[in-house]
Amino acid sequence: MKRFENNYEIKDKQFCDDYMDTYVNGYTAFTNSATTGILAILQSLNLSKTDEIILQEYGHPASDNVCNILGLKKVYSKNKGLLMDVDDAISKITPDTKVMIYSETNGFVSEDIFKLKKVCEERGIFLLEDSAASFKQKINNVKCGTIGHASVYSFSSSKLCYLGGGGCVISNNKNIINKINEFKHITNYKKYNPKCLTTYLPEALYPILKNELLLSDERVQKRLKVVSWYKKYMNIYSPGDYENYNAISLLSNTPKLEKTLKLFKIDYRSLVYPEFGNDKIRDKHIDIPYHINMSEKDVKLICNIINKV
Questions:
Q1: Are residues 187 and 261 in the same domain?
Q2: What digits encode the pLDDT tens for the residues 229-285?
Q3: 193 and 126, same domain (yes or no)
Q4: What pLDDT, in 10s, does the model give residues 38-79?
Q5: For the range 274-279, what are the long-range contacts, defined as Cβ-Cβ under 8 Å and sequence gap of 24 or more?
Q6: Sign of the CA dihedral running 18, 23, 26, 32
């Protein structure tokens, strides 16, 4: 350990800690993925099996899977597009409701999240903001990831900062971060909780993460340019009055989208995004290419193909 402490990775880790703490104006705990970050947050709350967690019927399956692992009681709200139907979620609150999970699917978010936050604070409900895909985005000039009582960011390969894996937990409640850090630093392997052992982010990734963080603002601008081209040549779905630069999605009920789905061969979606409700939103939208190095010519070609379907 002494040899490692003389290594440059320690300074890189400190840079990443300071960068994220400053960005969210709070506290950060790095994890090996956003999913294990969600798991660690829920474990830090010491929930019982009778406590209810409200989450939306369609979205990234991470939160749903974590609730299954922990054996927690799930209650599903309807969706409004790709996002939680906040009014429906509020109507499902009971005295047993302890957590609300708002998933910013594909980086999308709506102003409704502020209404949800107000209700959660009034009723003593913990708001977990799954902002895995929303790093560096804002809604009403508020940074995504700083709205809930605790949130997660992802650094997987499709995100703004990509390590191939990795993530972090964000909260302005230091006690939550301290508990999560206790999960990560195991000293007595006879007492460890196996569901938390994998929350650890390897030190070797910190030099890479440092570089990714330094490049993030430049990538935002490149992605916004790609978004502007899509808007120029084709109508795209966006549920809020802000720029989503983490995904470009089409949302439709028309047969045209069914043909487009076949064209892009998105068969995996049925397996990755299981359908919990009746809205079948999973079958109503697709994500289309948005790589930061795409040219306007590339975007125009994709739009022409879809517009002719």
A1: no
A2: 988 898 776 555 456 777 777 766 566 667 776 776 555 555 556 555 445 666 667
A3: yes
A4: 998 998 999 998 999 999 988 888 898 899 888 899 999 998
A5: 274/61, 274/64, 275/57, 275/58, 276/57, 276/58, 276/64, 276/76, 277/57, 277/58, 277/76, 277/78, 277/79, 279/57, 279/58, 279/78, 279/79
A6: negative
Dist CA 192 CA 189 (whole Å): 5
Residues 39 and 180 in one domain: yes
Q: Of 157, 188, 209, which residue sits at a domain end?
A: 209
Same domain, 123 and 11: yes
The C-alpha atoms of residue 43 and residue 32 are separated, in whole angstroms, by 16
Tell me how far apart the alpha carbons of residues 161 and 99 are, in angstroms, rounded to a whole number.
28
Q: Which residues of 174-193 are buried (b: 16+ CB within 10 A; e: fewer)?
A: eebbebbeebbeeeeeeeee
Question: Coil, strand or helix: which one is 180?
Answer: helix
CATH number for the domain spanning 153: value is: 3.40.640.10
* pTM, two decimal places: 0.86
Alpha-helical segments (H) within the chain = 2-5, 9-24, 34-44, 62-70, 86-91, 112-123, 174-184, 206-233, 255-264, 269-272, 296-307
CATH classification at residue 232: 3.90.1150.10
Task: Give the end of a domain, one of 147, 175, 209.
Answer: 209
**Which residues span the domain enclosing 289?**
216-307
Q: Which residues contact 59 (CB under 8 A, 6 or more apart)?
A: 79, 82, 83, 84, 103, 105, 130, 273
> Is 283 found in the same domain as 165?
no
Answer yes or no: do 113 and 9 share one domain.
yes
Report how far residue 235's alpha carbon sits from residue 110's, in angstroms, rounded to the nearest whole number.
Answer: 18
Q: Are 116 and 102 in contact (CB under 8 A)?
A: yes
> For the chain, how many structural domains are there in total?
2
